[in-house]
Specification:
seven-stranded antiparallel β-sheet, 4 domains, globular, 20% helix, 804 residues, eight-stranded parallel β-sheet, TIM Barrel, alpha+beta, 24% strand
Length: 804
């Protein structure tokens, strides 16, 4: 009996009405902008699903064909394909496609010089940027995926070789600059991104370190004592025996190190009781050696005499080995409480000792990701995922990604926002980085803090580093100031889970990732291609984290941020910014440049709900003025696949804005609500407004007297003391009788004084600048009187602070 994968509902055969044939070639119109182009001299075309493309049977779009013995033309309206029939098949002179959206004509063999790139296998050893693979999006308006050499699935769901021959199998994406449509159609033919478990979105702890069971438990208790929430605790490779006493390297292992972990089931049970999920680290490449507790069983199953001591070689290309690999090595640990596996594969790109023909081509990383994903979900109810490096096109179906062992440096941090957002160009939206950096470099409290702050606004926040006593990622390892700020960031991450999970659901439904490049929404604006360190963070926010050190002269970090047209509000301060321009943002250690759209609605978990990741009993809405807004809060049980049968809820939240009033509606939950709290406290925080004169609160049309607070220095008006059932409708209206509800105060004085306190500058000069502040506000050029005392960086910061 060989390993049987769960059945995948492949639909590899295109509708015959979408197919156009000519001697030696076959064209398939998958959508009006996505074509499959095949050549085989004997017309032995591949019908089976390939590694990337599973669902070729799509609704047939309208198209027209003109065909003669010498010419084939296919006109989809968006694309015009021209093929001059030739026994040599595809050549530059025989095959071309014109993209009508851009007027560009692609010819076979053209190199895409304007490709927007995709992602890379790993950041292992990277100190800054690495080259990225080509993606599916291009400023050229077209992209080509050459699928000719990929493997295909046989009738059992196992990968196998294509027939030998000079076949070509290409996919032409001709979407112009309609980038989101390109990704959405790619997901139709390749399969989409599954909805991840909700608890993945909390904070993770991981460290390559020889913890004992007592030490690891004490560490988790210390996080709790310090009110720093976690949702995942990973146990790195020292969970298993590493001193093997034989020729194996010790990197691969499947047997608990009982000297460090005397009671593994008890540890796993204790972690679950603490509200933590856990994973074990795997390096499977070395196979199973005689020191392993499972060796006798694996040897017998693979036809080896256990007394021989010969290792069981790792051969994931062999269905028989794969069955035993899961049944003997993994399933028993999952029964004990292991929630998922960290595939830390790094020992090669091919299987060197397999006797299977497919192993000559098979990338074991791609296959491990596929197999582990489907095996973890084998019972049909558990929501599966993997934690592994990028294996190549199609791996978006197997979240989440482990980006590898990056060097600790500002260059590494500065590359990660671009690296993460750009991966969306191949549908890979769930990267997890070693927050704080993995190895080498110079440990720096500011760098650590900025990395954590970036992690809050990244797909997955996982603290991790290598085995070095001088490197630690515990937030209290860098002193009290860093700890307080890092803890605030980590608590914010857990507060954001209602927003993040709604965006995870959106990703699974629409192909729009949590982190997306700016050009997704602004493809015709050149500025959108010039801001690699900022990105759209869900449908309400724009993030541009600080990724360079503070100036020694000003004590401030600095970033150039492009704000698209419209109004934007600083997420933390509520300060209003006019869009359609570049702005310079300065910030102290506690500041993170994140901006909300006008009319933005961001749901957060309340303070009392941060210790867990379930749908919160306390819900806080951060509300921003200046425009109409809407948000759909998606919730389900967070762990099972019951949502696929409708066990989920959606709560629509809307905001109506007029200059004198702001109205917020929380509508009754749609769908099933068993997973929701029976009663939920709700607080509405209106940012960037003046104190309203009238407040109206109503539940199901009945007026309610709610508690309100006004924080004048922060310009935040809060409405709280509201309890809602899932079936309730809440309306809150704030208004003024004249003028505008927007905040009208001048923030420049407080900004100047805040900067001055951080400057490395004579206190006397600071006092003199403050004394002349009214004059400087009226005439910023008067700052020239202090030119002899100010460095260029200080003067630039003050000039910025004095701007309207």
């Amino acid at each position: 009996m060989t390993y049987q994968l769960p059945s995948i509902p492949f639909q590899p055969l295109a509708d015959p009405a979408a197919v156009v044939r000519a001697p030696g070639v076959r064209f398939t119109v998958l959508t009006d902008r996505l074509l499959r182009l095949e050549y085989h001299p004997e017309e032995r075309f591949e019908e089976r699903p390939s590694q990337a493309f599973w669902f070729r049977r799509q609704p047939v779009p309208p198209f027209h064909v003109k065909q003669s013995d010498s010419l084939v033309e296919i006109d989809t309206g968006a694309l015009l394909l021209s093929y001059r029939v030739s026994p040599r098949g595809f050549r530059r002179e025989t095959l071309s496609i014109t993209v009508r959206a851009t007027g560009v004509t692609w010819r076979y063999g053209d190199w895409d010089h304007h490709n927007l790139r995709g992602t890379g296998r790993t950041l292992d050893g990277a100190d800054g940027a690495i080259p990225l693979e080509h993606g599916l999006l291009s400023r050229s308006g077209w992209a080509v995926v050459d699928d000719s050499d990929s493997l295909v699935f046989d009738e059992t769901g196992w990968l196998t070789l294509r027939p030998a021959g000079k076949a070509r199998d290409l996919y032409f994406f001709g979407y112009g600059h309609d980038y989101l449509a390109c990704l959405q159609d790619y997901f139709k033919v390749a399969g989409g991104v599954p909805l991840i478990p909700r608890w993945i979105l909390g904070n993770w702890w991981s460290r390559y370190w020889e913890y004992s069971q007592d030490e690891l438990q004490a560490l988790m208790l210390e996080f709790r004592r310090r009110e720093t929430p976690l949702s995942v605790c990973i146990i790195d490779m020292d969970w298993h025996i590493t001193q093997t006493g034989n020729e194996s390297s010790g990197w691969t292992g499947y047997t608990w190190n009982r000297q460090l972990f005397p009671d593994p089931p008890g540890l796993l049970r204790w972690l679950h009781e603490m509200g933590l999920r856990t994973a074990l680290n795997l390096h499977p490449a070395d196979g199973i050696w005689p020191h392993e507790a499972m060796y006798p069983e694996m040897a017998k199953r693979m036809g080896l005499d256990p007394a021989s001591g010969h290792p069981v070689r790792f051969d994931i290309a062999d269905p028989e080995f794969t069955r035993h690999y899961f049944e003997v090595l993994h399933h028993p640990y999952e029964a004990q409480g292991v929630d998922f596996w960290w595939m830390d594969w790094q020992q090669g790109a091919r299987l060197s000792e397999s006797r299977r023909a497919v192993a000559e081509t098979l990338d074991p990383l791609w296959w491990l990701n596929h197999l582990h994903f489907y095996d973890l979900g084998r019972d049909g109810s558990r929501r599966p995922f993997v934690f592994s490096r990028w294996g190549g096109l199609g791996n978006h179906r197997y979240p989440i990604g482990f980006s590898g062992d990056s060097v600790v440096s500002w260059k590494s941090l500065a590359f990660q926002p671009y690296f993460t957002a750009t991966a969306a160009n191949v549908g890979f939206g769930w990267w997890s980085h070693d927050i704080g950096g993995h190895m080498d470099g110079i440990e720096d409290p500011e760098l650590y803090l900025r990395w954590v702050q970036y992690g809050v606004f990244s797909p997955i926040l996982r603290l991790h580093c290598t085995k070095n006593p001088y490197q630690d990622r515990a937030p209290w390892a860098f002193g009290e100031e860093t700890f307080q700020l890092a803890r605030a960031a980590l608590r914010l991450r857990h507060a954001l889970i209602p927003y993040l999970y709604s965006m995870a659901w959106r990703f699974s439904q629409t192909a729009i990732p949590l982190c997306a490049p700016m050009y997704y929404e602004h493809p015709e604006d050149e500025n959108a291609y010039l801001c690699p360190n900022q990105y759209l963070f869900g449908d309400q926010l724009l993030a541009a984290p600080f990724v360079s050190p503070r100036s020694e002269e000003t004590g401030l970090s600095q970033a150039a941020v492009w704000l698209p047209a419209g109004e934007w509000y600083h997420f933390f301060s509520g300060e209003r910014f006019a869009g359609g321009r570049w702005v310079t943002v300065y910030g102290a250690l506690e500041d993170i440049p994140v901006f909300a759209r006008a009319g933005g609605i961001v749901p957060l978990a309340g303070e009392e709900s941060l210790a867990q990741t379930d749908p919160p009993r306390q819900l806080v809405l951060e509300l921003f003025p200046g425009g109409q807004g809407a948000f759909t809060l998606y919730e389900d049980d967070g762990v099972s696949r019951a949502y696929e049968q409708g066990a989920s809820s959606r709560i629509r939240i809307t905001q109506t804005w007029e200059e004198t009033r702001q109205v917020v509606r929380i509508e009754p939950a749609e769908g099933q609500t068993r997973h929701l709290p029976a009663a939920r406290s709700v607080e509405l925080r209106f940012r960037g407004i003046r104190q309203p004169e009238k407040i109206r609160v109503a539940i199901n049309g009945s007026a309610l007297s709610a508690e309100t607070t006004w924080n004048e220095p922060a310009s935040v008006f809060s409405v709280c003391g509201i309890t809602l059932a899932p079936s309730d409708l809440l309306e809150v209206e704030l208004s003024v009788t004249a003028g505008t509800l927007r905040e009208g105060r001048d923030r420049r004085p407080e900004r100047v004084r805040r900067y001055l306190r951080l400057f490395r500058l004579s206190s006397w000069v600071k006092k003199e600048i403050d004394a002349r502040l009214p004059e400087l506000l009226a005439n910023p050029n008067a700052l020239g009187a202090f030119a002899v005392h100010l460095t260029p960086a200080q003067r630039a910061a003050l000039e910025h602070a004095l701007q309207e």
